[in-house]
Structure formats: structure tokens, C-alpha cells
Write a structure and sequence with these properties.
The complex is a heterodimer of chains A (638) and B (225). Chain A is an alpha+beta fold. Chain A is built from 14 helices and 20 strands. The termini of chain A are far apart. A two-stranded parallel ribbon of chain B has the order 1-2. The chains are: A alpha+beta (638), B mainly alpha (225).
Chain lengths: 638, 225
């Protein structure tokens, strides 16, 4: 019995599988569409994978229908694209149309449908790899670089604009691990810099449509970068050697000048150095001795050589105590004027005192060379000043004794020939007459007066035009001692007159024209002694007498002394006694005549505008024998 | 939200208008305006269309990712775009067989047809909670771009006509055609769901871009073709 059961079981166990095998034939498993791709947006291929086949031979078929259409079509081509694929050719491909694709697996027992897939060809484009990838090494001034160029895959139609491809490449050294990727956009060429010379590079390119999938990488292209001369290394060596050389030289120089370098870097603390100062004495506690030793006997210098004490100008102020005439109100408001009006201390005058500074402050009238006075503004300005001066003078004229006036001469600025006004007169000899000791005429040359020259009372101008020339500025040196040199352009004779007739001078100037001698040399007169109000000049070496006539080359300017000033703007000149030169007589008579003619007009004191008179400078000067002022460049009338 | 979006959109449009008027592009090279060559014009409109398409793609994918699962959509079987009535070439040969004027006309028709639906879509979107502000801005930009792109293509067409590259048969097309298409598709457009609208517009913007590229490489093939 038991034997029989075992045998049945054995037989059953042998038979059942066979039977079961026959029973395993089932309908096929569900196929699955894996992907659909289009290489050119004109055709596409779909692939599927089969499910279990159910033990029977299974056929697969693909069916599709387009969107919004119920017509079902079967795949036209199962073979072109290989097994388990369906290829749609151009005629069957529609772009921007949704394909609903299904794959059916069929065997003897049944069939099985795959899940449907919606496909729009536009979104499944995956081109082939770029073709003709060429890689080369090119030379540049910066060094070698890789140039990669390629072409789009044949199937993708980029020329008509149907497909737009963008490219990407990757580069690496053969032995390197990581790729270096670069996007190349739509261009078909790429340069890669900073190469390792002597290495072998691998390059690959791929592309992608603007909406689609990346293609496969192209097959690698190899390129060998040749060994370049290590220029960089040799350059560094050269630089190192050069810098070492420079360093050696610098060290050598520094060691040579050790002390001076030390002096420069660590400057020694200066100790007190007072000549004659004896620290030991101080320590001993005898200050009197210490300070006595400081006294320098040679100070103030009394040497006869006054070259180093050369002072250009001596300012002699003549204060004007009285108020100016009403018409000059506007002028008085000028800053420059006011600054000088009151003080009678000549030392320490800043701003408007020196002629140079005055020029600057008073509107930039520059003190130029004596030989270069071309600016009419300057002259006009002087004219303006003259007006004031004139007024001041008139005041002075009235009460010469009581007035304080300052006389200023501007030899540099105006290059005038200084005529002998009465004050100048004194100053010429540097001996102020006692009468005029207190008289000061303030003259200033406010620049801004000049443009408003039309307001000047005209008759004032002429009178002070000479004074323009006549005013030479004096400036005391710090030590009002004898060691003062003056600029002296005029010859002054010691005559004290409070009245001076400048009108004559003026007319002369008008007649002869006003200008400035182009070349005028300065002469220095040595001051022997300066008393309170007196300046004693040393006689010039060339002449045996006192302040002699100064000659300026060809243009000899002769000055006539001013005898005095009339009460009404009239300068009375004195005849010159000394005449060093006899030669040059200018057309003096004519001037005289002119003066005589002019005189009445000027006497009126109107503000008549003469017009440009005497604008030219008469080069030659004449000796004034009759006491008239000779040709001095006059200022043009306003 | 609607009241807020209205002035914003008005400002946007107005601003763009002002910007455009600041540097007017003249077709015929009149004085006082910025002269662009035909190739430049084509490049501009193509860039414009590319941007428009990318925005539409973004919106569509956002919709499918975030909004669609929350809605109970049965299926997308009967997707019907309102621009289906416009005959458009569905392949390269078909597109190349079209004349320049016809191709231009197709482009313009498409652009005209989408102006209102997109505006409506933006308006609807503002009310819904499905989209965030970012998407709402994209929708607004999209509708605005359609408008601008249409103007650009019209300028290109003008220039082509001026240069004699296309006949003047196009000039009478814009306004009456626009009216026709809008009247034809107006009813249908309202029946479209948001998803369908985005799907359809994504496709149509791609069509416009492609057609423009074909037109460009046919007319001014100098660079980039």
C-alpha cells in the first residue's frame, strides 16, 4: 500500500510540472513604452519594452491616435529603429499634435495593452551628436590655447531655422578625473585657455535644441599641447637675479653713507645753539654774564657797506588831518585810502603801504618792472588817485603847516620822473624842511577808483599827474638809521615850500603825453643819517655834491624843484640851478605855450574832460631851466 | 485683489508704453528715432517670443505639479484649443511651403487670438487660491508679452513691406482679422479650463517662435541660421 502512495506521489511530482508547464501559457504581460525620441523634429521613434511573454510567442503592435481624432493608426514601421520600436516617418509625423500611443502585446492567449502615452514631437527632440569635432592648439600672445570647432548633426536642420541648437563641450587632461564643462551657446567654435604645456587633452561636444534633450557626447578628440619654453620660469629667474643685484647695490650705498642715513632716519635732537651762549655760565648761576656775552657789538651794523641793508622804498607819510573835500567822499570810502589816512607811522605798514602790496590790494595793479608800464588802467588808477591826492594837496596847500600829508612816490609803478615838489624837494635831500615836517599828504592809488574816473573833477587830474611821477615811495627799513638806501629817481633840492604849482607840471605832461619811460634805471642813494624828519643822503660818488641829478641813459629826466604850491592847485617850480647836461632841450617853449593856453581852462576847475591828451611818452627829457616840469609821462585824461 | 491687480497692470502697460515711446523704433529711418535693421528686429521679436514661451512652459508645469492633483480632472481627452480654427503648418515642409506673407499672417493671427484669453486667465487667477503671487505675475507678464509681441511682429511686417520683401496684402489683415478671430474664438475660449488654456498657449507660443525663426532665416539668413 505504502509503496503505491509513494509511487503516485513520485509520478505526480514528475507529471505536475509538465502539466503545469502547459498551463503557464498566459496572455502576455503588459508592455511598457520606454521612450519616444525625435532627432530632427521631423520624424520620431518610440521604444517599448516587453512584459512577460506568457510562454507563447508574443507580437507587439503599436497603435496611436492623434488628438481630437478617434482614428487609430498602427505604427507604420517596426523595423527601421530596431526591435521593439516604431518609427514614424515624415509623412506621419505632425508637429504640435498630441499623439496618444499604446502598445499591445498579443499572444495566442490574449493581449495586453500598455499604458497610453501622450507625445508631442516638439518636446521629445534629442538630436544626434555634433559632427566633425576638430581640436587644435593655437598660439596667442598670452600663450597657447585650444580651439575646438564642430558642426551640427546632419539631421538637424538649423539652416532653415527649424531647429535651434545650443552646444556644450567638456575638456580635461587625459589623466585628470574631472571634466571642465563649458557652454558655447549657438556658436560652433570655442577657445579654451590656460593650458598645461606638454599635456594631452580630451574634448567632447554635445548639443540640445532649445526645448528638448541633450544629445550624447561626441567621441573624444585628443590633442597634445606641445612643450613650450618655460618662459615664465626664466623670466622669474631673471627678475630674481636683477633684484638681488639691486639689493646688493642698495646695501652697498647705505653702508657707505651710514652716517647720513642714520642722520636721515634718526635725526638728532638739536641742541640749543645760541652764539655766545655759555651753558656753563648759566649753570653757575650768573645770568648777567651769560646775557652780556650775548650782546653782539656789531649790532646794529654800522658798516659802510649798505648793500645788504638795501631797502627798496622809504615810505614817508604826510598825514592829512583835515577831512577831504566833499566830492571825494566816494573815493574816501576806498579801503586803501582809508587805511592810510590816519596813521602817520610809517613802520610796520602792511597792506597798502608798500607799493607792491598796494597794487595787489588795490585791485591787482601790479608793480611791474620800471620799464613796463603799458596798462592804461594802471594809469587811470593813478589818475584817480591823483584826484584824491590833488584834493588832499589842495588842502595842504591851504594850510600847509597844519596839514599832515604823506607823500608817496611810486617809482616802480609809474616810472615817473620825480619832479621837485616842494615836499619831494625836501625829501630829495632827505632833509625835510621844518615847515613840512608835519605836513603829510596822503596819496594812495586805489585801483577801483580808476573805472569811475569819470567822476573825477577833471581839473584835479592834471595837477597831480606830475605828482604821480613825483611820488616815490619811501620805506623805512626796520632800523631808521643811516643805513638806509633809497630809491631815488629824482633830484630833490632842499627847498621848503608848501605851495606847489602842479598845474604846470600837469600841463606839461598833457602836452607831452603820458606814458612811462620804457627803460628806467634805478639808482640808489645812500642815506647817511635819518633824523626825526630828515633824511640825510650821502652824496653819490659820481657827483661831488649832494643829491645830484640822476641821469638815466638816454632819457634824462630832469626834475625841477617845486617852489611851492599855490592855494589853488598850483605848483610853483623853482628854477634849477644845477644843470648837468646842457644838451637836451625839448620843445619846451611849446609846452610852455601849451601850458599857458591851458592854464585858464584848468583854472576853472571844471570837470572837463580833455580827451586823450599827451598819451605818448616823450622819450627825451629836457632840462628845465625855467622851473617848469619837463616831460614826464602824464596820465591820459579821463 | 482684482482692484489691486487692475491698477498694477494698467501701470505696467502704461509704463511699457512710455518706455517704448522714449526710444521709438522707426521702420523707415525717420529722424529722431532709433533705427533698427530688419535682422535686429527679427532678433528682438524672436527673443521676445522665446521668453514668452518659457514663461508659458513654467506656468504649465507649475499647474501640472501643484494645481492639477488637487482638482479632480477626469482626463485630458477632449482638449480643445480655441485657436484650432487657425490653420497652422504642422511640419517643416508645410511651414516652408507657406509664403512669407501667409506665414506672417499666421503669426499675427495667433497672437491676436491669445490676447484676450490670457487677460481673462490672469483675472481669473487672481481670484483663485491655486496660484501664488509669483504665478500671477507670470500670467500678467504673459498676457502683456503677447500684446507687445504682436506689435513687434507688425513692425517687422511693416519693415518687410517697406523693403519690398513681401507684398502689401498683409496690411489689411490686422484689424479685420483680429476682429474675426476674436469673435470666433471668444465663446470657445471661455469654455477652456485653465489647464487647457496653459497647454494650448504653451504650444501656440512655440509655434509662434518657430515660425518667426523660419521667417527670419528665409528673409535675413546672415547669422544664426
Amino acid at each position: 500500500m505504502m509503496w503505491r502512495d509513494v509511487g503516485v506521489t513520485l509520478i505526480l511530482s514528475l507529471i505536475l510540472p509538465v502539466v503545469a508547464q502547459g498551463a503557464r501559457h498566459t496572455p502576455p504581460g503588459k508592455p511598457k513604452l520606454t521612450s519616444c525620441r525625435s532627432p530632427d523634429k521631423e520624424t520620431f521613434t518610440c521604444w517599448w519594452e516587453a512584459g512577460s511573454d506568457g510562454g507563447r510567442p508574443t507580437t507587439y503592435s503599436l497603435f496611436y491616435h492623434k488628438e481630437n481624432s478617434e482614428t487609430v493608426y498602427e505604427c507604420p514601421d517596426y523595423h527601421t529603429a530596431g526591435a521593439n520600436s516604431c518609427f514614424f516617418n515624415k509623412n506621419e509625423t505632425s508637429i504640435w499634435v498630441n499623439y496618444n500611443i499604446t502598445v499591445v502585446a498579443t499572444n495566442a492567449l490574449g493581449n495586453n495593452f500598455s499604458d497610453p502615452v501622450d507625445v508631442d514631437v516638439v518636446y521629445i527632440v534629442q538630436p544626434h551628436t555634433p559632427e566633425n569635432v576638430t581640436v587644435g592648439v593655437l598660439e596667442d600672445e598670452d600663450g597657447p590655447f585650444l580651439r575646438v570647432s564642430w558642426e551640427p548633426p546632419r539631421k538637424a536642420d538649423t539652416r532653415s531655422g527649424w531647429i535651434t541648437l545650443i552646444y556644450e563641450l567638456r575638456v580635461k587632461l587625459e589623466e585628470a578625473e574631472e571634466w571642465e564643462e563649458h557652454r558655447a551657446g549657438q556658436q560652433k567654435m570655442f577657445n579654451n585657455f590656460s593650458l598645461h604645456s606638454g599635456g594631452v587633452y580630451m574634448v567632447q561636444v554635445r548639443c540640445k535644441p532649445d526645448h528638448g534633450f541633450w544629445s550624447e557626447w561626441s567621441t573624444a578628440s585628443y590633442v597634445k599641447v606641445p612643450d613650450y619654453i618655460p618662459r615664465e620660469r626664466s623670466m622669474w629667474i631673471l627678475i630674481a637675479v636683477f633684484s638681488a643685484f639691486i639689493f646688493l647695490i642698495l646695501t652697498w650705498i647705505i653702508t657707505l653713507n651710514r652716517s647720513s642715513v642714520k642722520h636721515c632716519l634718526l635725526p638728532p635732537v638739536p641742541g640749543p645753539k645760541i652764539k655766545g651762549f655759555d651753558q656753563q655760565l648759566l649753570k653757575k648761576g650768573k645770568p648777567e654774564e651769560v646775557f652780556n656775552s650775548l650782546v653782539v657789538q656789531s649790532f646794529p651794523p654800522r658798516s659802510t657797506d649798505y648793500e645788504d641793508l638795501l631797502v627798496e622804498y622809504l615810505e614817508v607819510y604826510v598825514n592829512e588831518k583835515q577831512e577831504l573835500m566833499p566830492e571825494g567822499k566816494d573815493l574816501r570810502d576806498v579801503g586803501c585810502l582809508e587805511s592810510k589816512s590816519q596813521s602817520d607811522n610809517d613802520s610796520g605798514r602792511g597792506s597798502c603801504d608798500s607799493h607792491t602790496l598796494l597794487m595787489e590790494k588795490c585791485g591787482g595793479v601790479e608793480s611791474k618792472d620800471e620799464s613796463s608800464y603799458e596798462e592804461p588802467e594802471l594809469l587811470q588808477g593813478q589818475a584817480g588817485s591823483w584826484e584824491r591826492l590833488e584834493r588832499g594837496d589842495s588842502q595842504v596847500v591851504d594850510t600847509p603847516d597844519s596839514s599832515d600829508a604823506r607823500v608817496k612816490t611810486w617809482p616802480l609803478v609809474f616810472s615817473p620822473s620825480i619832479h621837485g615838489s616842494s615836499d619831494n624837494h625836501h625829501y630829495g635831500t632827505l632833509e625835510m624842511p621844518k615847515q613840512h615836517s608835519t605836513s603829510e599828504i596822503t596819496y594812495s592809488v586805489p585801483d577801483h577808483l580808476f573805472p569811475t574816473s569819470t567822476s573825477f573833477p577833471h581839473h584835479h587830474h592834471p595837477e597831480y599827474r606830475d605828482s604821480l611821477g613825483e611820488y616815490s615811495e619811501y620805506r623805512h627799513s626796520r632800523s631808521p638809521s643811516t643805513g638806509v638806501l633809497y630809491h631815488w629817481e629824482a633830484q630833490h633840492h632842499p627847498q621848503a615850500h608848501s605851495n606847489f604849482n602842479i598845474r604846470n607840471l600837469e600841463r606839461q605832461k598833457e602836452a607831452t603825453g603820458f606814458g612811462l619811460p620804457p627803460s628806467r634805471s634805478m639808482e640808489y642813494v645812500e642815506v647817511q643819517k635819518v633824523n626825526q624828519n630828515q633824511l640825510v643822503l650821502k652824496p653819490l660818488s659820481s657827483h661831488g655834491r649832494g643829491p645830484s641829478q640822476v641821469q638815466f641813459g638816454r632819457a634824462v629826466v630832469d626834475y625841477s624843484k617845486v617852489n611851492g604850491v599855490n592855494n589853488d592847485n598850483v605848483l610853483l617850480l623853482q628854477r634849477q640851478r644845477e644843470m648837468a647836461e646842457a644838451g637836451q632841450y625839448c620843445d619846451y617853449r611849446e609846452k610852455e605855450g601849451a601850458e599857458a593856453e591851458r592854464y585858464p581852462t584848468q583854472q576853472q576847475g571844471k570837470t572837463t574832460k580833455d580827451g586823450p591828451v599827451a598819451t605818448q611818452l616823450q622819450e627825451s627829457t629836457c632840462l628845465t631851466t625855467s622851473g617848469y616840469v619837463d616831460t614826464v609821462p602824464t596820465m591820459p585824461t579821463f | 485683489l482684482l482692484t489691486l491687480s487692475l491698477p498694477v497692470s494698467v501701470l505696467l502697460l502704461a509704463g511699457e508704453r512710455i518706455l517704448a515711446s522714449a526710444a521709438p523704433i522707426c521702420v523707415h529711418g525717420q529722424a529722431g528715432c532709433h533705427f533698427l535693421s530688419l535682422a535686429d528686429l527679427f532678433d528682438r521679436v524672436i527673443q521676445h517670443s522665446a521668453r514668452m514661451h518659457s514663461i508659458s512652459s513654467d506656468l504649465h508645469s507649475e499647474f501640472e505639479q501643484y494645481v492639477l492633483p488637487s482638482r479632480n480632472h477626469i482626463g485630458r481627452i477632449n482638449r480643445h484649443c480655441h485657436t484650432a480654427t487657425i490653420l497652422t503648418p504642422n511640419g517643416k515642409e508645410n511651414a516652408q511651403r507657406l509664403a512669407r506673407e501667409e506665414l506672417t499672417e499666421v503669426i499675427l493671427k495667433l497672437l491676436v487670438a491669445w490676447k484676450d484669453p490670457l487677460w481673462q486667465f490672469h483675472q481669473n487667477m487672481v481670484h483663485q487660491d491655486d496660484f501664488n503671487n509669483f504665478s500671477s505675475n507670470k500670467a500678467l507678464e504673459m498676457s502683456y508679452m503677447v500684446h507687445e509681441l504682436r506689435k513687434g511682429v507688425e513692425k517687422v511686417a511693416d519693415k518687410m513691406q517697406h523693403l519690398g520683401m513681401i507684398s502689401n496684402s498683409l496690411s489689411g489683415l490686422s484689424s479685420p482679422e483680429a476682429l474675426d478671430t476674436s469673435s470666433d474664438t471668444s465663446g470657445e475660449s471661455q469654455a477652456m479650463s485653465d489647464h487647457d488654456l496653459l497647454y494650448c498657449f504653451r504650444r501656440d507660443s512655440n509655434k509662434v517662435q518657430n515660425y518667426l525663426k523660419i521667417l527670419k532665416c528665409r528673409i535675413v539668413p546672415e547669422n544664426g541660421c
